[in-house]
Please model this.
Amino acid sequence: MATKTRRTPSRRAPLNREKVLAAALRMADKGGIEALSMRRLAQALKVEAMSLYNHVASKEEILDGLVELVVSEIEPPAIGGPWRAAMRQRAIRAHAVLMRHPWATMLFVSRVNVGPRMLRYVDATIGCLRAAGFSYPMADHAWTAIDAYVYGFTLHKRNFPLDPAEYATAAAGFLPMIPVAQFPWLNGMSQEVIAGRHDGLHQLELGLDLLLDGLEGLREK
Model:
Protein backbone atom coordinates (compact mmCIF):
# COMPACT_ATOMS: atom_id res chain seq x y z
CA MET A 1 0.00 0.00 0.00
CA ALA A 2 1.50 3.26 -1.09
CA THR A 3 2.06 5.79 1.62
CA LYS A 4 1.00 9.35 1.15
CA THR A 5 3.70 11.93 1.38
CA ARG A 6 2.83 15.09 3.19
CA ARG A 7 3.54 18.22 1.21
CA THR A 8 5.44 20.90 2.96
CA PRO A 9 3.63 24.19 2.43
CA SER A 10 5.65 26.56 0.31
CA ARG A 11 6.95 29.49 2.28
CA ARG A 12 6.17 32.92 0.92
CA ALA A 13 9.22 35.06 0.25
CA PRO A 14 9.58 37.65 2.99
CA LEU A 15 8.21 41.10 2.34
CA ASN A 16 10.63 43.97 1.92
CA ARG A 17 10.58 47.64 0.92
CA GLU A 18 11.38 46.92 -2.73
CA LYS A 19 8.42 44.54 -3.07
CA VAL A 20 6.10 47.05 -1.40
CA LEU A 21 7.17 49.82 -3.78
CA ALA A 22 6.99 47.55 -6.83
CA ALA A 23 3.40 46.64 -5.94
CA ALA A 24 2.58 50.32 -5.35
CA LEU A 25 4.00 51.17 -8.78
CA ARG A 26 1.82 48.56 -10.47
CA MET A 27 -1.22 49.80 -8.59
CA ALA A 28 -0.56 53.45 -9.49
CA ASP A 29 0.04 52.58 -13.16
CA LYS A 30 -3.25 50.71 -13.26
CA GLY A 31 -5.51 53.05 -11.32
CA GLY A 32 -3.62 56.25 -10.56
CA ILE A 33 -2.42 57.59 -7.25
CA GLU A 34 -6.03 57.89 -6.09
CA ALA A 35 -6.28 54.11 -6.14
CA LEU A 36 -3.28 53.73 -3.85
CA SER A 37 -3.86 53.20 -0.15
CA MET A 38 -2.13 51.20 2.56
CA ARG A 39 -5.17 48.92 2.85
CA ARG A 40 -5.38 48.20 -0.88
CA LEU A 41 -1.64 47.73 -1.09
CA ALA A 42 -1.74 45.20 1.73
CA GLN A 43 -4.54 43.35 -0.04
CA ALA A 44 -2.52 43.21 -3.25
CA LEU A 45 0.44 41.81 -1.34
CA LYS A 46 -1.80 39.42 0.65
CA VAL A 47 -0.55 40.71 3.99
CA GLU A 48 -2.03 42.57 6.92
CA ALA A 49 -1.98 46.34 6.52
CA MET A 50 0.01 46.79 9.71
CA SER A 51 2.85 44.64 8.35
CA LEU A 52 3.51 47.26 5.67
CA TYR A 53 4.67 49.67 8.34
CA ASN A 54 7.68 47.46 8.99
CA HIS A 55 8.94 48.55 5.56
CA VAL A 56 7.41 51.96 4.83
CA ALA A 57 6.45 54.49 7.47
CA SER A 58 3.52 56.06 5.63
CA LYS A 59 1.85 56.64 2.30
CA GLU A 60 4.03 59.74 1.94
CA GLU A 61 7.11 57.55 2.06
CA ILE A 62 5.58 55.34 -0.62
CA LEU A 63 5.05 58.37 -2.84
CA ASP A 64 8.67 59.39 -2.29
CA GLY A 65 9.73 55.89 -3.26
CA LEU A 66 7.57 55.94 -6.38
CA VAL A 67 9.20 59.16 -7.56
CA GLU A 68 12.57 57.50 -7.07
CA LEU A 69 11.51 54.47 -9.14
CA VAL A 70 10.25 56.65 -11.97
CA VAL A 71 13.26 58.97 -12.09
CA SER A 72 15.56 55.94 -12.14
CA GLU A 73 14.08 55.13 -15.58
CA ILE A 74 15.33 58.48 -17.00
CA GLU A 75 18.97 58.40 -18.00
CA PRO A 76 20.74 61.52 -16.69
CA PRO A 77 22.46 63.75 -19.25
CA ALA A 78 26.17 63.28 -19.89
CA ILE A 79 28.48 65.97 -18.56
CA GLY A 80 31.10 67.46 -20.86
CA GLY A 81 29.68 66.46 -24.22
CA PRO A 82 27.44 68.45 -26.56
CA TRP A 83 25.02 70.04 -24.11
CA ARG A 84 22.19 70.57 -26.58
CA ALA A 85 22.04 66.91 -27.65
CA ALA A 86 22.28 65.78 -24.02
CA MET A 87 19.47 68.03 -22.81
CA ARG A 88 17.33 67.19 -25.82
CA GLN A 89 17.65 63.47 -25.15
CA ARG A 90 17.01 64.06 -21.46
CA ALA A 91 13.71 65.78 -22.26
CA ILE A 92 12.61 63.13 -24.76
CA ARG A 93 13.40 60.33 -22.30
CA ALA A 94 11.61 62.11 -19.46
CA HIS A 95 8.50 62.56 -21.59
CA ALA A 96 8.50 58.89 -22.61
CA VAL A 97 8.85 57.73 -18.99
CA LEU A 98 6.13 60.07 -17.75
CA MET A 99 3.81 58.84 -20.49
CA ARG A 100 4.36 55.28 -19.19
CA HIS A 101 3.41 56.42 -15.70
CA PRO A 102 0.51 58.87 -16.23
CA TRP A 103 0.24 59.76 -12.53
CA ALA A 104 3.91 60.64 -12.07
CA THR A 105 4.04 64.11 -13.62
CA MET A 106 1.98 65.66 -10.83
CA LEU A 107 4.22 64.05 -8.19
CA PHE A 108 7.24 65.56 -9.93
CA VAL A 109 5.81 69.08 -9.90
CA SER A 110 3.88 69.14 -6.61
CA ARG A 111 6.39 67.71 -4.13
CA VAL A 112 9.87 68.46 -2.85
CA ASN A 113 11.60 65.34 -4.15
CA VAL A 114 15.01 64.84 -2.54
CA GLY A 115 15.63 61.13 -2.84
CA PRO A 116 19.15 60.06 -3.87
CA ARG A 117 18.19 59.11 -7.43
CA MET A 118 16.40 62.40 -8.01
CA LEU A 119 19.35 64.30 -6.56
CA ARG A 120 21.76 62.49 -8.90
CA TYR A 121 19.49 63.25 -11.85
CA VAL A 122 19.30 66.95 -10.97
CA ASP A 123 23.02 67.16 -10.20
CA ALA A 124 23.90 65.68 -13.61
CA THR A 125 21.53 68.14 -15.29
CA ILE A 126 23.17 71.12 -13.62
CA GLY A 127 26.60 69.67 -14.36
CA CYS A 128 25.77 69.29 -18.05
CA LEU A 129 24.69 72.92 -18.30
CA ARG A 130 27.58 74.27 -16.25
CA ALA A 131 30.10 72.37 -18.39
CA ALA A 132 28.48 73.96 -21.46
CA GLY A 133 29.15 77.47 -20.14
CA PHE A 134 25.90 78.35 -18.39
CA SER A 135 26.26 80.25 -15.13
CA TYR A 136 24.53 78.73 -12.12
CA PRO A 137 21.58 81.16 -12.41
CA MET A 138 21.25 80.55 -16.17
CA ALA A 139 21.58 76.77 -15.68
CA ASP A 140 18.72 76.97 -13.20
CA HIS A 141 16.58 78.98 -15.64
CA ALA A 142 17.42 76.61 -18.52
CA TRP A 143 16.68 73.44 -16.59
CA THR A 144 13.43 74.84 -15.20
CA ALA A 145 12.24 76.05 -18.61
CA ILE A 146 12.90 72.68 -20.25
CA ASP A 147 11.23 70.71 -17.46
CA ALA A 148 8.22 73.04 -17.38
CA TYR A 149 7.77 72.48 -21.10
CA VAL A 150 8.10 68.70 -20.82
CA TYR A 151 5.71 68.46 -17.87
CA GLY A 152 3.16 70.75 -19.52
CA PHE A 153 3.39 68.94 -22.85
CA THR A 154 2.96 65.58 -21.12
CA LEU A 155 -0.07 66.71 -19.11
CA HIS A 156 -1.65 68.25 -22.21
CA LYS A 157 -1.13 65.10 -24.25
CA ARG A 158 -2.46 62.88 -21.48
CA ASN A 159 -5.55 64.96 -20.76
CA PHE A 160 -6.59 66.55 -24.06
CA PRO A 161 -10.24 65.55 -24.55
CA LEU A 162 -10.11 64.83 -28.30
CA ASP A 163 -8.50 62.05 -30.27
CA PRO A 164 -6.37 63.29 -33.22
CA ALA A 165 -8.76 61.56 -35.61
CA GLU A 166 -11.51 63.87 -34.33
CA TYR A 167 -9.68 67.18 -34.83
CA ALA A 168 -11.07 68.05 -38.26
CA THR A 169 -14.65 67.19 -37.32
CA ALA A 170 -14.36 69.09 -34.04
CA ALA A 171 -12.88 72.13 -35.79
CA ALA A 172 -15.79 72.16 -38.22
CA GLY A 173 -18.20 72.00 -35.30
CA PHE A 174 -16.52 74.91 -33.52
CA LEU A 175 -16.37 77.10 -36.63
CA PRO A 176 -19.74 78.85 -36.05
CA MET A 177 -18.45 79.94 -32.63
CA ILE A 178 -15.42 81.70 -34.11
CA PRO A 179 -16.69 83.88 -37.00
CA VAL A 180 -13.91 85.26 -39.16
CA ALA A 181 -14.95 88.85 -38.49
CA GLN A 182 -14.31 88.46 -34.75
CA PHE A 183 -11.60 85.81 -34.60
CA PRO A 184 -9.79 85.93 -37.96
CA TRP A 185 -6.65 84.05 -36.95
CA LEU A 186 -8.35 81.34 -34.93
CA ASN A 187 -10.83 80.87 -37.75
CA GLY A 188 -7.97 80.63 -40.22
CA MET A 189 -6.18 78.01 -38.13
CA SER A 190 -9.39 75.99 -37.88
CA GLN A 191 -9.84 76.16 -41.64
CA GLU A 192 -6.36 74.69 -42.06
CA VAL A 193 -7.30 71.74 -39.85
CA ILE A 194 -10.66 71.23 -41.55
CA ALA A 195 -9.04 71.23 -45.00
CA GLY A 196 -6.35 68.79 -43.90
CA ARG A 197 -3.50 71.23 -44.49
CA HIS A 198 -2.61 71.05 -40.78
CA ASP A 199 -3.07 67.89 -38.72
CA GLY A 200 -3.21 69.78 -35.43
CA LEU A 201 -0.68 67.42 -33.86
CA HIS A 202 1.91 68.97 -31.58
CA GLN A 203 5.46 67.66 -31.55
CA LEU A 204 7.57 67.60 -28.40
CA GLU A 205 10.78 67.95 -30.38
CA LEU A 206 9.67 71.08 -32.27
CA GLY A 207 8.95 73.09 -29.14
CA LEU A 208 12.03 71.65 -27.48
CA ASP A 209 14.28 72.81 -30.30
CA LEU A 210 12.78 76.30 -30.10
CA LEU A 211 13.64 76.37 -26.41
CA LEU A 212 17.17 75.09 -26.96
CA ASP A 213 17.74 77.66 -29.72
CA GLY A 214 16.83 80.41 -27.29
CA LEU A 215 18.96 78.99 -24.48
CA GLU A 216 22.02 78.82 -26.74
CA GLY A 217 22.39 82.59 -26.53
CA LEU A 218 22.45 82.57 -22.72
CA ARG A 219 25.58 80.54 -22.17
CA GLU A 220 29.05 81.94 -21.83
CA LYS A 221 31.14 80.61 -24.71
Q: What stands out?
A: The chain has a mean pLDDT of 91. The chain is about 60% helix and 0% strand. The CA atoms of residues 36 and 158 lie 20 Å apart. Residues 164-195 form one domain.
